[in-house]
Amino acid sequence: MASEQAVWTAEVRTDDADATRTLAARLGAGLQAGDLLVLSGELGAGKTTFTQGLGEGLGVRPGIISPTFVLVRIHPSLVGGPDLVHVDAYRLDSAGELEDIDLESTLATSVTVVEWGRGKVEQLSDSRLEVTLLRATGAHAGEDLVFDFDETGEADPRTIRIEAYGPRWAAVRPFGS
Known about the structure:
Layout: E1 8-14, H1 17-29, E2 36-40, H2 47-58, E3 72-75, E4 83-88, H3 95-99, H4 104-107, E5 110-115, E6 128-135, E7 158-165
Parallel strand pairs: 2-5, 2-6, 4-5
Antiparallel strand pairs: 1-7, 3-4, 6-7
């Protein structure tokens, strides 16, 4: 069972989708087979953009898209590293429904990223990263964010909070956390 207290937390702000991809690529370069990431955030917050960056860092086959209409998609490594398993748990109501996907069969040999997986996948591993993406959605984004969103698309700032759980992450602290 996954530990309940984070061993560390990092919070990083990015200015646009490219910066979000770059940050995720840096993280992806340090991931290894067996790593589990749980992505959270509102629709349009950048979960797929983040996953695209992870894929770049891992060196997997490009073409990562939102898994909205596919529950699981595997992106094979092009560099001999682990594959990336990209999961959308949005329409799943429980951890029991997630078992039908059989993630256990690929977890040890792949990096597994589950969008909307909080409360559904923690039992899969004793270690995980929970990544929350916060994105402004209007002129007054709320107390969590201290910037305004430029609706022209020129700026697309996000706050990315990464919480690490379990022994895998006890000694690994990316981004100077």
